[in-house]
Structure formats: structure tokens, C-alpha cells
């Protein structure tokens, strides 16, 4: 028996090998490589620490829109059912948008009933990014934002600009 005093093992804990190469984990590694090699404009994402099943991502607000200049943080939580089931995608940044709930959850068809295993992380983040500028006010997650988007675009855009400015300082 070996006793080590005064030294701490700082090597990261890796899951046992049988947990490393499930189909979902292999697919997520492929998604990650693709995202690194050919990242879509205004999007970045990576697994958190040593957990391929939990990702942090950033979406930049598209140019020449009220979202321009914003840096919005999200998390993606995958299960072993990926890619047959979508991940749970959530904004960490505070948002004001017709299709984003107060808790950051996103009302987006490809994350629910229109999911397909052909979508990868890049496609998910690209879809979320385009949702920012192209909301669906008929399926509101935030009824105030949906109403404002439809009835008072100027005030809606002002509120979006506030969220953009907060995204620069918020953690």
C-alpha cells in the first residue's frame, strides 16, 4: 500500500474507458473537431473541462442587427441518446427575446419536435443565432418580448440593445 503525504494528484479524473467511446461521445468528439476546423461565423463552443457531455458556447450577435456586438453565453447538456435526441440548450446570459424563457431555455423547433440526428453542435448554434434576428412571435416563451416585437419594434430593439450591453459585463 502506498501512502503519499503532502502531494495532491492534480491529474484530471477521466471516466473509465468503457464510458469514453459510446456512440454519443464519439459523435460529440467529431462535432467538436468539426467546430474547431470549420467554425461558423460568430459561434464558438467547447466541452467543459473533461466532460464531453456538457458544453459551453458563445454566440455573437449578428452584424447590422439590434443584437450586433452582443456576446451571449449558452450551455449545452447532452445525454447518451445524442444524436438521436437533442441536447438541452440554455442561455446563461440574460436575454430579451420572444422565444427565450426567463430561465434561458429556448423555444426552437429543431430542439423539440423537429430534431434530426443530422444536426450537429454547429448546426444547433447556428440555428439559435439566426433565431435571435428571426423570432417566431406566434410561439412565445416571453409574451412581453413577443408583444413588443409585434407592436412596438423600436422599444423592442431598445430592450435588445440593453441586453447586448449587459452581455459585455456579465459573467
Automatic annotation (TrEMBL):
Its EC number is 2.3.2.23. One of its GO terms (biological process) is ubiquitin-dependent protein catabolic process. One of its GO terms (molecular function) is ATP binding. Keywords: ATP-binding, Nucleotide-binding, Transferase, Ubl conjugation pathway. The active site is at 107 (glycyl thioester intermediate). Residues 23-169 form the UBC core domain. It is an enzyme of class 2 (transferase). Pfam families: UQ_con (PF00179). InterPro entries: Ub_conjugating_enzyme, UBC, UBQ-conjugating_AS, UBQ-conjugating_enzyme/RWD. Belongs to the ubiquitin-conjugating enzyme family. Accepts the ubiquitin from the E1 complex and catalyzes its covalent attachment to other proteins. This is E2 ubiquitin-conjugating enzyme. It comes from Fraxinus pennsylvanica. The lineage of its organism: Eukaryota, Viridiplantae, Streptophyta, Embryophyta, Tracheophyta.
Amino acid at each position: 500500500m502506498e501512502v503519499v503525504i503532502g502531494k495532491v494528484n492534480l491529474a484530471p479524473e477521466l471516466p473509465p474507458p468503457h464510458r469514453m467511446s459510446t456512440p454519443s461521445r464519439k459523435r460529440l468528439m467529431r462535432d467538436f473537431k468539426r467546430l474547431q476546423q470549420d467554425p461558423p461565423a460568430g459561434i464558438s463552443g467547447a466541452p467543459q473541462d473533461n466532460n464531453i457531455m456538457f458544453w459551453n458556447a458563445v454566440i455573437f450577435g449578428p452584424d447590422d442587427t439590434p443584437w450586433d456586438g452582443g456576446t451571449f453565453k449558452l450551455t449545452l447538456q447532452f445525454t447518451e441518446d445524442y444524436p438521436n435526441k437533442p441536447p438541452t440548450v440554455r442561455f446563461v446570459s440574460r436575454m430579451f427575446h420572444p422565444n427565450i424563457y426567463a430561465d434561458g431555455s429556448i423555444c426552437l423547433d429543431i430542439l423539440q419536435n423537429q430534431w434530426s440526428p443530422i444536426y450537429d453542435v454547429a448546426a444547433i448554434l447556428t440555428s439559435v443565432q439566426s433565431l435571435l434576428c428571426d423570432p417566431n412571435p406566434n410561439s412565445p416563451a416571453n409574451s412581453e418580448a413577443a408583444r413588443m416585437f409585434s407592436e412596438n419594434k423600436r422599444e423592442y430593439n431598445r430592450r435588445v440593445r440593453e441586453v447586448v450591453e449587459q452581455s459585455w459585463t456579465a459573467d
